[in-house]
Design goal:
single chain, 326 residues, alpha/beta, Rossmann fold, Zinc Finger, Delta Prime, domain 3, 2 domains, five-stranded parallel β-sheet, 15 helices, 55% helix, binds zinc ion
């Protein structure tokens, strides 16, 4: 783990390295940005560089401190994650107790990382605030969140904000393909996520490849015999574990119709369903451009209805029926 393994977040890393270089780093940071943009990795890379014996702007990777961080057994780093749905005041108290004991530790600095910091209960946040108000020059706090606005303003004003930015699909795709992930899955995943880590996670869950296949099957069936499409919904979607991911199914439908638009606009090199290129090329001109755009809108509407917890099978069925040619 080092800053070199974090891609596309130059501004965040520059901010952190400025502090390391000058020794004038902040004692509280808020790492904020969309899920999967590398905030957690950056927190560990920063912690490692701070603890590293070499005291450079990145960790050396070979000293004993660096090796202890890599083995996840460095006692100078504490991590807090939500206990159930929230971070509770007991967790913050326990943390403060740990730091009180370890004040005699030989490490130059100690760090604590709070993941999903927006999930702190009000009492936990107030307890943390007191901790931040008595600055200890040897303690560094890193709060990780995808929603900095959800943190107390009093916490925000005491911490330096480190922004993590969403990455564009074209930035992510080549890297993931180079790492050996199947390109058909990569092209879809980078459209649905904002960061490398999030894209990797999506590619690696079992249901993603599966739901992508079902979506392609449904798209093909619904242009022919609508009844077989409705049967597929019943057999493969509503009663399986895929039922939890119908919003992703519809996101994929949006990308499918967008591919048709891309082919019609002579930009076929940008299509997402690269393994279906032949089929996409064949049917792209079977409808007017405006019809494909309206299909995209219908898919988005159905996705929003499912997210709003409308009966999923109903929403999906009426979406597929609305795709039928009149
Ligand atoms: Zn080192």
């Amino acid at each position: 783990m080092s800053f070199q393994t974090i891609y596309g977040q130059e501004r965040a890393i520059r901010l952190l390295q400025n502090g390391l270089r000058s020794g004038n780093y902040s004692h509280a940071y808020i790492f904020q940005g969309p899920p999967g943009t590398g905030k957690r990795r950056a927190a560990m890379a920063f912690a490692k560089a701070l603890l590293c014996e070499q005291q450079l702007e990145d960790s050396c990777g070979t000293c004993i401190e660096c090796r202890r961080v890599d083995n996840y057994n460095h006692t100078a780093i504490q991590t807090i994650t939500p206990d159930g749905t929230t971070i509770k005041i007991e967790q913050i108290r326990e943390l403060q107790k740990q730091f009180a004991y370890r004040n005699t530790s030989t490490s130059a600095v100690q760090l604590y990382i709070i993941e999903e910091a927006e999930r702190m209960s009000i009492s936990a946040a107030n307890s943390l605030l007191k901790f931040l108000e008595e600055p200890n020059s040897r303690v560094v706090a890193i709060l990780i969140t995808h929603n900095g606005q959800a943190l107390l303003p009093t916490i925000r004003s005491r911490a330096q904000s480190v922004p993590f930015v969403p990455l564009a699909p074209r930035q992510m795709a080549p890297l993931l393909i180079q790492e050996g992930f199947p390109s058909a899955l990569v092209q879809a995943a980078v459209q649905l996520t904002a960061g490398i880590e999030a894209a990797k996670e999506l590619i690696q869950v079992n249901w993603f490849a599966e739901i992508r296949n079902v979506m392609i099957q449904l798209a093909k069936e619904s242009t022919g015999d609508i009844h077989s499409a409705l049967l597929t919904v019943q057999q493969k979607l509503t009663k399986s574990e895929l039922a939890d991911h119908l919003d992703t199914l519809l996101d994929l439908f949006v990308l499918w119709f967008k591919d048709m638009v891309l082919v019609q606009s002579d930009r076929k090199e940008r299509i997402v369903f690269i393994d279906q290129q032949e089929y996409v090329m064949k049917i792209a001109f079977s409808r007017e451009l405006s019809e494909w755009v309206s299909c995209m809108q219908k898919a988005m509407e159905a996705r929003n209805r499912i997210r709003a917890h409308v009966n999923a099978q109903l929403a999906l069925d009426s979406f597929l029926v609305s795709m039928e040619r009149r």
